[in-house]
Every structure is written in structure tokens, then in C-alpha cells.
Amino acid sequence: MVNDISVVITQLAGILGQENVLDSESDRKFYSTDLSYTEGKVAQVVIRPGNTEELSACVALATSADLAIVPRGGGMSYTRGYQPEKDASMLIDMRRMNRILDLNTEDMYVTVEAGCTWKDLYEELMEGDIPVRTPYFGPLSGMYATIGGAVSQNSLFLGSGIYNTVAESVLGLKVVLADGTVLQTGSAAHKNGTPFWRHFGPDLTGIFTADTGAFGVKSEITLRLIEAPTVTLFMSFGFDTIEAMLETQTVLARKRICSECYGFDPYYNNSFEKQGFTFGEGLAVLRDVAGTEGGIKGLWTSFKVAKSGKSFLKKVKYSLHMTFDSYHKDVAHKALETAREVCLDNFGNEIDNTLPTVFRAHPFGGVRTVLLGTEGEIWLPVHGFMPLSKAVEMGSATERYFSENKALMDKYNIHSSYLTCFAGTEFVIEPSIYWHDELGDFRLSLIEEEFAEKWKNIPVDEEKRAIALKLRDGLRDLYDENGCCHLQLGKYYPYQEMMSNEPLKKLLAGVKKTLDPDCQVNPGSLGLR
Questions:
Q1: Would you say the C-alpha torsion 487, 445, 459, 407 has a positive or negative sign?
Q2: Which of 43, 61, 206, 505 has its CA 20 to 30 A from that of 125?
Q3: pTM over 0.90
Q4: How many CA atoms lie within 13 A of 452 on its CB side?
């Protein structure tokens, strides 16, 4: 513990103002808790810097006082990404740093502060005379998730089918190091340059992507831009087996024609039905968002006709949902027809495309439906990131794992589901574990008031939680044993243990030693302590 923390807090308040320095027990615990349901330490102080200069000054002050520093974005981590490993820590809430600093539609890049959310960035970029967007443009939690958090975790979803994970969209970074020094990567580091290019010599930008904040605190991020597609089409198919769905996805991934292509198992499908994803809702979305060809902000759809109000996932075992973006509707239609042929070749049956329509029409809605089950159950995911050739094999292995553990799960009323998708030509399987347990203040703060009130008194169930976490660990180990990698490494995935050679470990440790010699920046991330 830092003996003179009160002195440090007073000095931090002198830099930021007292309102941006939080030291109450409730605030410190709230900001130190992620979604992982794993105990961590509680930071001694939480700060909310407003710009790079304030961030730099606070980091230098904290580390000189022997405090570890831990950056936090929107809080969506479920891998202990920002949970402190030391009591003597200063947690940095980045969300006041939320400005768009430079929008250059001639050279096609945008520079934002790391605390800007994906929702805010997307909406601002789409407001221009010629709407633009980043290639990857956010996770489903983008109402809360920040640019800096996503780059640190290397997230994927919207746009990933063609444009890969968020790291592929990054052109350069401004990073505050352990001693408060500000480092710039990419072509903006050229003494006469602008941030138009990532590879200014070696790819030093890449060191700070997917590092879960282990090497420094990202303060400003430059991302590529593309003109926003003017046409978006949607299609959904049902399959009887996971193998048929996964085989379809791998073929589509190689063709690179889907902006998104994601599949759900029977439990997920049933959950969507319970949450009200009906054809009637899809029609309401279309009336609101895409009433004419061209649509609002360029959204256009070939929405399938079905009987209004009828459920469309109820009898579907495995559902696959696809989005096709283009600058001309004939090109989008060609991609859709190509995908339809692939689906039919793998014995799929076309179903209403309500789900991808709703997701894309409102890409950054509330997060309740992706954080909790339909009855307020905890939702906790784990994943494997793999080559396309392993997708079918690992999908079958995932189903076997749940089958082997069915008796245990039934005994404790624990359920499971899984999402499958791809980022470029890499594949992701993300199973989730569900169980009833205390939601906690952070989860409750993220959901609508009526549901928070309804579920706030769900009691703690430590026995069930221990079983659920053990099941999750088993899936993680299954994927590691089969050579899968992981996004969102945080402090949960065994990155160090999975490295195959000592030179790589030494290189990683050497980078850490150079940038953070006393290991004061998010200790424990990437297994570095």
C-alpha cells in the first residue's frame, strides 16, 4: 500500500479537479470490477482525465508514488482486463477523453481520443455529406465499449467478415508510458508527417494492439476510413446440424463476401424468441429505418416476406445470419445469391432475415440481451480463435463437451449457448455459460431500470458460480489444447503458458522492461508481472 495516498489524491485533484478523482470505497470497488466474476483487488483511487496532457501528468505522478496504473474503457471486459492485481493501484476511467480530434475524408483517416465509444464515432461519421465509417466499426456493446478498450482487446464483430479485427483498422497510436512519456506510432511519428500510414518503418503500432493495456495507456487512436456502403442486404438460413452450418461459414469466409456472418445454436435461438425478435418487430424496424430503396443513411434491404407476428427461429436448430455491404445493389445482390447457393449446397433452409436486419439497423442498442439471459441469468463467454480448417472439428468438440457435462449442468440449472463467426479468414467459436447469481452493481448499471429493479435481488450462489466458472475454464483449456488462440487476453487466458519458444518470451519481456521497467502498467496483463 502507498503510505501517503491522501497526498497523492490531493495532487491528482490539483491536476484534474476534485470531481474527477474518486476515492470512496463504493466508487473504487465499482470501477475495479469487470464482468468476469473473479475476485480482484480494489484500486486505491480512480481518476477521470480529460486529455492526453492530464493523463500524462497523472500517470507520472502515480508511478513516482509507487502506484500501479490500470486503464479502463467502457468496462465490457470479461477477462479481468482492468481488474487490478495490486491494492496500490490507480485506475484510469478513460471515458472523459471522448473527442474526435481529426476527421480527414481526403486522406481517409480519423483520430479519436481512446475513451470515445463506437456508437458516438459511428454516428458522427455517418452525419457528413458523404457518410464514412471505419472498416471494422464496433462490437455489439458499442454503446458502452470504447475505441481504446477494443484496440487493447482486439475485438471483432461489425464489419469483421471482410475487414478482420479492429487491430487491422489502426493506423497509429499515441500512448502514455509508465513514466508519463507520450509515445507516437505510425507515420504521425515522422517529424514532418501526418497519420496516414501505419508502417513508418517496423510496425511498432502493432505492439500496442491486443496488449490489454500491458505496455502503456492509449490516449489517441487513428483509424482508417472507408466511404460508407450505400447498399446493405440481409439473409438468414437454418441448419439441422452444427457441422452443416460451420461448413457453410468456412466456405463463405474464404469468399470474403459477408460483412458479418454469425451463427447461433438452439439455446441462443430460443433466447431471441423470448426477447421478442419476431417478424413483426423486423417490419417495424424497416418502416423506421429503410422505408425506401436507399433507406436512411444508405440502408437498403431485401427483407423476406412471411406471416406477420409469427416466430421465425422457434423451429430452427442452428441459425446463420449474413450481411452484405456494397456501393451498388447489383454487386450486393450477387454476393447474396452466391451465399445463398453455398447455404443450399449445405442443406440449409432460408428463413426470415429479421435478426441481422434489426442488429444492423440499430447496431449499438442496449446491452442487456448480450449480457444476461432472458430471466436475468449471468452470461459469461469464453472463446477460441482458430484457422478455418479447425472450425467444424472444434464445433463438434464444443458440443461434445457440453454433452459430457450435461448431468452436472442439469443438477445446477446451468445452461450454455454459443456464437460462431469469422473475421476475415479466421474463425471464432464463443460458447457462453448461464446461471442465476447476484448481478452486482456494475451489471445492474448497464441494463434498463425496469429489468434492474426486477432482478436486483437475485441472491448470491457461490456453489453454482464455482461450477459455472470451472466449466468455462474447461472450454478455455479445450481450445488451448487444440492450438486455438484468443482475443481479449486480459489476465484470464494463459498467454505465457501457450508460447512455444523462449526467444518469443524474452522478446515480450524485453519490450515490457523497456517501456515499463518496474511493471507498473496493468500488472498481470499478458501474464507479465
A1: negative
A2: 206
A3: yes
A4: 11
What DSSP character marks residue 43?
A: -
The answer to whether domain 5-94 has CATH 3.40.50.720 is no
> Where along the chain do its domains lie?
5-94, 100-227, 231-361, 368-481
pLDDT, tens digit, for every residue of 366-405? 788 778 888 999 999 999 999 999 999 999 999 999 999 9
Determine the residue type at 143. M
Which has the closest alpha carbon to 170: 207, 140, 132? Answer: 207
Q: Are 387 and 423 in contact (CB under 8 A)?
A: no
457/158 Cα distance (integer angstroms)? 34
Helix axes 354-361, 279-289, angle to 10 degrees: 40
Same fold, 100-227 and 231-361: no
- If you search the block for the grid coordinates 468496462, which residue do you land on? 75
What single-letter amino acid sits at 291? G
Residues 103 and 513: beta-carbon distance below 8 Å: no
Cβ 38 vs Cβ 469: under 8 Å: yes
Cell digits of residue 401: 463437451
The full length of the chain comes to 529
- Sign of the CA dihedral running 292, 294, 297, 303: positive
Q: Extract the C-alpha cell encoding 514.
A: 523497456
Count of Cβ atoms closer than 10 Å to residue 97 Cβ: 26
Q: Please write down the HEC assignment for all residues of 70-119.
A: EEECCCCCCCCCCCCCCCCEEEEEHHHCCCEEEEECCCCEEEEECCCEHH
Residues 386, 388, 389, 392: is their CA dihedral positive or negative? Answer: positive
List the CATH code of the domain at 231-361.
3.30.70.3450
- Beta carbons of 474 and 401 less than 8 angstroms apart: yes
84, 42 contact by CB (below 8 A): yes
Low-confidence ranges of the chain (pLDDT < 70): 1-3, 273-314
Domain 100-227: top CATH class:
alpha beta
d(CA 150, CA 488): 9
